[in-house]
Structure formats: C-alpha cells, structure tokens
C-alpha cells in the first residue's frame, strides 16, 4: 500500500472528514512516530507492533563491484517488531 492508497482508505471510512483533514491526520501520525524515534524513544501500537531504534556498530564491508574493503560507520536504524495479533493474522490458514 502506498501513501495515496492509505489516504483513500481513511477518507472512505470517514466521509465526514475533508481530504485535507485526512492528509493532515496521516502527516501528524507519521511525524510523531519519526520525532519520537529520532529522540531515541519507542512507539507501541497495541495489536499492530512497536517501532524502536537500534544501534549498529561500525564494521567493515565490501564494495560489491570491486570487492574492496570499505569502512561502514556506526549508525542508528529504525526497527519494527510486529505485535502478536498481526503475526497471528499473517499466519492463519
């Protein structure tokens, strides 16, 4: 699903909201998640999952074209852990 499809789904389920309001809600939602993660926090959405930040240590990698060793700096990366309900829903058959 892409952003425009998400906006369309939310607008369809909430006909009382104008398109601009739906877009504003989605923008605020994602901005708040991004802001919390950039502060090193965690965002938990019950029944869906939790977003957090993990630290990756510096390491040596390889240039896939030349095979040359390159230094990869330490960095922080977003991490998503799905909740129990979503895992069960994905695996029901």
Describe the structure.
The protein is an alpha+beta fold. The protein has one domain (3-90): Irregular (HU Protein, Chain A). The chain is 41% helix and 29% strand. The chain is built from 3 helices and 5 strands. The strands form 2 sheets. A 3-stranded antiparallel beta sheet has the order 1-2-5. Strands 3-4 form a two-stranded antiparallel ribbon. The chain is elongated and about 55 Å long. The protein starts with a helix and ends with a helix.
Instruction: Report, as a whole number of angstroms, the end-to-end distance.
Output: 22 Å
What amount of the residues lies in strands? Answer: 25-35%
What order do the strands of the largest sheet run in, or round the barrel if closed?
1-2-5
Supply the CATH superfamily name. IHF-like DNA-binding proteins
Give the C-level CATH assignment. Answer: Few Secondary Structures
Oligomeric state of this protein: single chain
Tally of separate domains = 1
CATH topology: HU Protein, Chain A
SSE order, one letter for each helix or strand: HHEEEEEH
Number of helices in the DSSP assignment? 3
From the alpha carbons, calculate the radius of gyration and give it in angstroms.
19 Å
Family: Belongs to the bacterial histone-like protein family.
Pfam family, one: Bac_DNA_binding
Keywords: DNA recombination, DNA-binding, Transcription, Transcription regulation, Translation regulation
Function: This protein is one of the two subunits of integration host factor, a specific DNA-binding protein that functions in genetic recombination as well as in transcriptional and translational control.
């Amino acid at each position: 699903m892409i952003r425009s499809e998400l906006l369309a789904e939310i607008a369809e389920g909430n006909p009382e909201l104008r398109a601009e309001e739906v877009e504003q809600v989605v923008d605020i939602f994602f901005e708040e998640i991004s802001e919390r993660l950039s502060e090193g926090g965690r965002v938990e959405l019950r029944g869906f999952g939790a977003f957090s930040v993990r630290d990756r240590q510096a390491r040596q990698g390889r240039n896939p074209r030349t095979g040359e060793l390159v230094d990869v700096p330490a960095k922080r990366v977003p991490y998503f852990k799905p909740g129990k309900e979503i895992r069960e829903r994905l695996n029901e058959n």
